[in-house]
Amino acid sequence: MAESFKDHAARLLREKRAGRWYEAGLRFRCLAPNCVDCCSGKRGAGYVWVKIEEMQALADFLHLELNAFTRKYVRQAANRYSLIEKPNKDCIFLRDGGCSVYPARPGQCRTYPFWHEVMAGPETWAKESTHCPGIHNDAPIVPADEVTRQLNQDRENRGIPARD
Ligand code: SF4
Ligand code: SF4
Questions:
Q1: Residue 11 within a domain
Q2: pLDDT bucket at 91, cuts 50 / 70 / 90
């Protein structure tokens, strides 16, 4: 159903208040499997944070009991949990040039590059393009509403309040 003028005006006002700097959408298309940079140790050590429900989904996908899964694939860092890495700092599930648990990958993997810190503004987004070749001027536009959906998913994962 088409958005009424009143709803349209209300949405524009909300966006203005929320400071949606990416209103025109953002150019991004993941280049996997030709690129696996964000899963690899290319940028050094890192964390793939997992919550209990994400560990359970991965355990189910691998047909493992949760305890067996966590013993084999999870480490504790501060008071959170992360997937372990290979000695070369690749994610433990990066195999044969791709994610071996793709259907059950954690939220952090699903929402990249629309992460809270990357989405702080045009400058941080532009800077991220130096790490992610999927962010480039010839990539298709991801509409602002989809960007917001993924950004809010990332914020929810981290316990940060969502935005309109
Ligand atoms: S770095 Fe970007 S293009 Fe490469 S796999 Fe990750 S999201 Fe895709
Ligand atoms: S779980 Fe899969 S998508 Fe996430 S970092 Fe590891 S290999 Fe990449």
A1: no
A2: very high
Q: How far apart are CA 5 and CA 8, in angstroms?
A: 5
* 12 within some domain: no
Residue 154: give the domain boundaries.
Answer: 24-36+44-158
Does 159 have pLDDT greater than 70? yes
Q: What is the pLDDT of residue 97?
A: 86
Evaluate: CB of 105 within 6 angstroms of ligand 2.
yes
Residues 6+ apart with CB under 8 A from 1: none
Ligand nearest to the CA of 85: 2
Is 74 touching ligand 2 by the criterion CB < 6 Å? no
Q: What is the total count of domains within the chain?
A: 1
Q: What is the DSSP letter of 161?
A: P
Q: Which residues line ligand 1 (CB under 6 A)?
A: 30-32, 35-38, 112-113, 132-134
